[in-house]
Each structure stands twice: as C-alpha cells, then as structure tokens.
Amino acid sequence: MPNPSLLEPSMSQNAANAHMQQQRQQQVLNGLHNLHIKRGSPLPPFLTGATVPNYDYSTSSWGAIEPGSEIGSFKLAGKDVNLFVLWSHVYKLGGGDRLNSLNGWNQLLRQFDLPEEFPPGHAHASSSVAAVLAQYYRAILTPFEESYKKNVQENQRKAGLVNRAGMMQNPAMGNMPPGQAMLQQSMNNNPAAMQRMGMNAPGQNMAGPQGMAPSANGAQRFPMNQALGQRPQSGMMVPPGGDAILPGTTPEVNLLDQDVQGIKRKLDSNELDNKRVRPRTDGQDGSPLSLGMLDRHSSEPQVPPAQLTQSAPSTAVRPRQQPSRRKIEYIPLAREVDTFGGRDFKLIETEYAGAALPQRRGLRDLNEWGTIDVEHLALSIRSRISTELSYGLTTFTLLSTMRGQQQGSGFPISQCPDLLDEALDLVEDLAFGGPEAPPDDHFQNDGQPFYTNKQLTDYILEEQQQPFAGLEIRQGSKDPDLGPVQRPANYILAVLNIVRNLSCFTDNIEPLGRNERLVDLLLRLCTVVTKNGVPTAASPALSLNDLISVRKDTLYTLSSIATSINLLTSSPLPSSTVRMARRAIDLISSYLIDPSEAVSPLACIQQAGVPIGPHLRPPHLADIALEVLTKFTLPDSNRQSLAKAIPQASLWTLFSALVHRMPVLDTDFQLMVQDQWLEYSTQLIMAVYSLVFLAPPELKQKMRSDRRLGFKSVMLRMLSRFLATPETRMRFMVCARRATETLKVLDDALDPFENPADSSTPALSFGMGFSDSNDNGQEKGTGLLGAHRDLGWEFLMAREVLQDDIMFRELESLVRVECQ
Length: 820
Description:
- Residues 1-24, 230-250, 266-327 are annotated as: Disordered.
- By secondary structure, this protein is mainly alpha-helical.
- The protein has 33 helices and 11 strands.
- 49% of the residues lie in helices and 4% in strands.
- 29% of the residues are buried.
C-alpha cells in the first residue's frame, strides 16, 4: 500500500476524512453497546461489532431485526440501514422527537433508497416503512441520543464557567476577540491539548523551525495565531480550528482536538452575532463619532494611522477600557419553507426530470373497507348536522364508486332502501322545502317556459361578462348568516353524483328505474321557470350554473335507467304521469332542438372549427339525449302514455330538429364510415321512428306532406346510399332496415292506440307495420314511394333485401300503388 503522504493532496484529504468517519462510527457503535449493556438489553453483535458473551438470538428481544450486509446495519424492506448514518441524519434534522412531532420520517426514506410501503405478504405490510423505521430508531438509538445531548449540554456549561473564570484571572485577554480569548484560556488550562495542536504550554519555549512545535507523532504544526484561521508565512491557508499538515506527514485524530474545535466554532458564532450589533452614532458626551473611531473586534477606539505605525512594534498590553453603550437590534429567526404557495418546486422538477418517484398505493377494493354501518349513515344524513352530513355523504360517495369482484357489480342499493330514501329526503327538503303537491286536472293545458341548453349557457356567459358579476348576490348564493357550513346546492349535487355512480352498475338499473319518486325528483330539479323575464331554476337553492350541472347529471342517469322506467297506462292518464312524461321530453328536447345545433354531421364539425379526421366525434350531449330518447320510448307501455301526454307541437318540433340532423351530403355519409358516427346516425333513425310511432294520424299526414322539411326525400336518399353497393349494404344494413320501418309506420294512417280493431295485428305489437306478428298476409300500404318505383325496384333486387323477408315485404308495400 503506498504511503498516504505520496498521494495527491485531495486524495490524502479524502483518505483522512474516511478514516475519521470510521473512527467516529466505531465510537458511536461502542457507545451504543455500553449503553444497552447498562440498560440490561444488550444489542446483537452484528449491530455494534462488539462481542457479547453467551448471547442467545432465540431469547433476545432483538430477534425481529434482520442483520445487514455489514457491521452496524440492519435490513429493512430489503435495504441496508446503517445505524451511524441513520443517527447522523436524524440528529441533523433536530432529533427523533422533532421528527415525531412533524411526522417527518418520510424524509429519511430517500437516504437509504427505501420504498414507502412494504411488499404484499410482508410481516409489516399493515404499516408503512417510515413507521417501522421510527420504531427501530426509538428502540435502538433514542437512549443514545438522549445521553449524547446531555453530555453536549454539560460541556457547554463547563466551557461557559471556564470562560468567565479566565477573563477574571487574566485581564490581558481583553484585547483579544471573545472567541480567541476563550480558546486561549481553555488551552492554558489544558497543556496537553496545546501540545497536540503544535503550541507550547505556558512557560515553555517554541521548538521547531519558525516557531513550530512538533506533535506527538512528529508532524510539524503551526502556532496558535495560524490555527485560528490566519495565513502562515508559507502561504498556505489553515482552516479555523484545524491544523496544517505538512507534506509527508500523516494526520492525527483526537477527540479532545475535536471538542476544542467545536468550542471555538461556537464562540466564533457568538462573535459573529456580536458583530451584528449596531453601534451608537454619538459619543458619551453627545458629540458625533466617526466610523473609523470604532473597532469591529473591541469596544475601544481605533488608533489613528500615524500612531499605529509608531506603536505597532510595542508589545505592551494596554489596559482594558470601559465599553461604550450600543443599541441592540433583535433579528427574528426565520423558518425556511421549501414550498411556494403550497407547491413543492423541487418535487415538481424531479418529476419533470423523469426521476423515479415513490409508488403510491392503489385504490382500495370494496372488501378492504371493512364493515360500514348503513343505518348509521342513514341517521347521519337524517340529522342535518353539517359534520354528520359531510361524513355521511362522503362515505356514501365512496361506496357508490366501489366495484365488486364480479363484472358490473357494485354497491347494491336495492339492499339499502332506507339510505336512498334519506338522501332523497335531504334533496327534497333543501331544494323545495318538501314534497311536490299533486297536479290538478288542468295540468295538461298549462304552458311551461322552455329553454334549450344552449340558451341557458349563453345567458350565463352574458351574465358573467357584466362588470362586478362575481360580487352580485343571486339565487343559489350562500347565505352569509349560515356560518361555516356548505352551500345547500353542494349537498344536492353530491346526492345526484351518488345516484349517477350507482346507475352505472347493472344490479342497480332496475331498482333505480322502478323508483318513481327518484325519477320524478330528478326531473323536477331540471325544471326552468321565468322570473322577471329571466330563466331561473325552479329550486330556490340552485343557481343557473347549478341547474346546468343538475340537468347534465340527470341526463347521464337517465341514459342508464331509461329502459327500466315504466309509465302508467291507465285511462284516464294520471296527472302525475303526464307531468313526468312532459318533463322528460322537455329535458331531452333541450339538447336536440336548438336551431344552431340541429344541423347535419358535416355542419357539426364545421361549427367546431376543426379539420375532418378520424378523431372527430358527434356532439356528446346530443348523443346522450338521443340514447335516452330511444330507450325511454322503447317499451310499448311508455309509447302509449307518451302519445297521450306529449302535445303535438312538442312532437313536431322535436321531429323537425331530428330530420335536420340526418346525413344528406356525400361528406356526411363518408363520416358514417367511423363507428361513432354510424352509431349516432342509427340512434337518429330510431328516435325518428319513435316519434312517428307516437304521432296521431293528422300529425303523420303533416310529416308526409311537408315539402319544406322534405322528410320523405331525406329518407329515400339515405336508403339509396345504404343500399348502393354490396360493401355499403353490409355495413349499413341495420340503418337501411330502420329507415324502411320508419317509412312503413309513416305510411300507416291509422292510430294503433285508438283503432286496434282496424289493424291487422294487435295494437302494441313491436315492429314496423306489425310484420313480425302472426299475420302472414300481404303488407298493405298507400304507395309512399310510388313516385320512385324505378329506385324502389332496385332496392328490392338487392341480395341482402331478398334474404330479409320482412324488409322485402315492407319495401314492396311502399313501392306498390293499390287501387281503391
């Protein structure tokens, strides 16, 4: 091994630091060993490196600790944790008690490359790695930390006594700075320490060249004035409190030297604090003083330059003068904060740099939440106390998002009817103050204001653009007298969010759809009224912004449960059913009939201002509204009730808007190559079929003969494009069949609900023209497509049409003109 003195200076310094680090680590381990021996619980040998006679691992209280790969370390989550390094980091952060109070043990995980959580199946899987690390520290290192702090405090107290005694016994030290005077007094009282630092004890002569004294191992050291940070004659800078090691020598490490250096650093910091004191700007007699008359290291005036050159060679000690009065400036301690506005920039930069971040634990499964008392949740909601409501609705929200082990399963609301009833009671009380009164018999003749979704949105935008719009108190704003509680609308929106989450699971669709009170309350919340010519929510607790959110959540919920909603079909039709049916159709129509939005697929893309591409999708809310309309009007019982409840004007307005949304141009049909636009067009045709089926004979006649709308021409163009080639017939055969069925229902001038005896099949048999019933006779019709017989015969000659017997007979009845 080469001599350390022959290495480069930097390599020699690194070797010295590593050797010193090993010595300090061994001292800490020895201290741990002795301390735990005194406490009667000796540590295992692999933790301290010391031999313990007759040590039995099987009976030891430290048996749960896994040995590390080196002496003085243990295993935690598969990583080595060095006791000395752990103690050093904890001591720098303020000690174990401070980390416990600030919950800061997570800061140490990166130092040892530890994860945040144990792997599944581990013995400590129920606890975090930081918590187990804190337990190990409290058991092993906390007694050592307490003993170390007591020793440090005792040494500081003794150093203070020595300083005061030395100043009283040696007045000549008054000319030195406070830190140097105390260190000189400490060295005078400890001759052995002065010899190790290369200085003569009191009464001894300097030895060695240029006043240097040899150390115990023969290394030449600089005298006291150079050890305090002054520059020696050779030009080498000696750090304060350290020794200058000459080339060819080896460093000497001694604990007393380290203690002396620590005392000096503490005193130098006190001296630095004294330098912050602002001196007085006037003398004792009131005359102003100049800056050159005050010394930064002593309280006596400086000697003028002329006198300084004459008195410099003199070594006489001047008597200490009375210090002048100074003004004390108190500098408050500032706490360093690593975050800015609540954001940790270092963590954000680390994440952007792509560094590996600790993995977070995933969402818990439904079975991991344990037992939840549903009755307690219901009572919390019933109490109407803000804290109980927050707990109840938060827990209910979490339950509504949990998924079961089976596909499509979740929280079964059918098993907790009381919990849902309490949530509906809460919404009803906050929104309207109680249940709605039954409608009178004249409800069908009462007109209600109608606003589209775009009209409501435009009004909100216009209202918010007014000056000081955010300071105005409007409907739905929080009452300042309520105190620190939630706004009532927030509770309503929370319950609607819960219902929407529950409707996503298959097991909850039928219970929610059959709950007539739930459907009626949702549609009631979507009602819009006019106050002073301004559209307003019918609920006093909702603002117009809240109303937009409520209507959207209700639309999403109805898209899931619409197939399970059954309207009453008794005669006469109950007023409550009429009210529910009208509110549902009004909600659906508000997303479909706005003239600026009821346009063809190509116009929808042009309004969005984006180029045509595969990423384009149909209007989302319009697509959801079409889905609700097709599902809501699918059951025959609902069709009969809707035909009686919905006015003809509403049916005609909705029918016209849907016809304007159908594809007409070649570019529209090119978009239908994409699956999302094909589904959108299929729902359009199904919705038109439902409206034609609901229309009475006089409205059907208007649908056929209105040339401005041109419904028959639009449907004929769609059939010609769908059945043009074998490729298009294969892809668009479902749309072609639905279009043919729609034309067949429009061709039937009779009302199947009022004239069942005149029809060749039962009134509520599903299928266009009732062709899928038991009637195998020839289809009857008025020849709706008789003027286009050439095109019609081309349709009939298509192979796919010939293979579909029902579609062939319906098309043949539309083309054939019968003589009366």
